[in-house]
Amino acid sequence: MAKVNDVLYFLDVLAPFETSMGFDNTGLLVGGKDKTVNKILLTLDVTAEAVQKAADLGAELIVSHHPVIFNPMKKIPDDSVVYNLIKNGISVISAHTNLDKAEGGVNDALAMKLGLEDIQSVASEDLEENGLGRIGRVPLTDVRSFALHVKESLGADGVEFSGKTPVKNVCVVGGSGGGALADAKKAGADTLVTGEAKYNQFYEAIEMGMNLVVAGHYHTENVVLVHLKDYILSTLNDVTVEIFNCKYTEKV
Question: pTM of the predicted model, to two decimals?
Answer without folding.
Answer: 0.93
